[in-house]
Amino acid sequence: MQLVIVGNGPGGVELAKRLAGEFNVTVVEKENIPHYSKPLLSHHIAGFISEEKLFPYSREWYEERGINLLLGTEAKLVDRLRKVLVTDKGEIPYDALVIATGARARELEVPGKEHILTLRTLNDAKLIKERLEEEGEITILGGGFIALELAGNLAKAGYTVRLVHRGRTLLGLDRDLSERIRVELEGAGVEFHLETNALGADEEGLKTDRGYIKGRLKVCAFGIVPNRELALKSGIHAGRGILIDDRFRTSARDVYAIGDCAEHGGVVGGTAKAAVGQAKVLANLLRGADDRYDFSFRSAFFKFADFGVAIIGKTKGPGSWLGEDTKVFYEGESPVGAVVLGNVKKAFRLEKAIKEGLPID
Fold first, then answer.
1. Bridge-partner residues for 139, per DSSP?
2. SS3 of 350, please?
3. What are phi and psi of 337, to 5 degrees?
4. CA 279/CA 136 separation, integer angstroms
């Protein structure tokens, strides 16, 4: 079977790894470098890891597994009738095509936005790192995991870090949990500006509805925009992301989508963990095996400076503290979600228990 994967991110490379040797696998990637770890970019900016450590697989790794890696190649169109992927370097026939094009950083739409950087790619990280080493301080916009990871790591590295967020709470969690995370990060050196809306930017700082915040280096780190353009140009249905069913099928026959570019039930995965999990299930489905991905169950593990945070399942509504570091959320008598602070190892046990409907003590 000729399997063509568009995108060499966590979902694409996981799928290629699992099916190499069984299928003829081609990976099409518009960047000129092999797969690298985007979750580790903030660690690299902080100086905790070298650039080479971002790359888990060499070019030889792809060759040894028979994966045809086409770097610097941009997918232009899926010709569904001929079952051919049209790229800027030529056409590639497929039996199955998987779109794993990921997402790009959302930009802040305010006057002077050209003075605000974003973080999504290695080139973004290199530019931020270079500017940070010149300025010694940074203003980060956002209250999600990308902003908090970046803020925590840079504060830990000794830089002056300001975090500006329009909401009162962080990570979409309740006030109790948000306050615990804020206190931990303040202890690491992060200066918070919550309930603060950015109105504009200039070279020297950020204009907000709570006053002017000085700082030449500003990074927008909230939200993603799914890369769905290939699907749209090819007549494949898309909403916020590329629309898929329970088996990752798009509206085009033998064309699938996984990871941050895909949307199921109105939800985009949004994490590398979700993309890898989807790739594992899709690999089994393409082999003809029976498997299922639980789109309703989401979990993510983060580390902000030295403070671990795990978010498991559904975390809305009132929750109950289980000890000092874990808050559990219920539907009726059944636990459906949890947030674990600090002791993330404990989170793996909780994740398994909640997924399998086991009691929690």
1. 162, 218
2. helix
3. -170, 165
4. 40
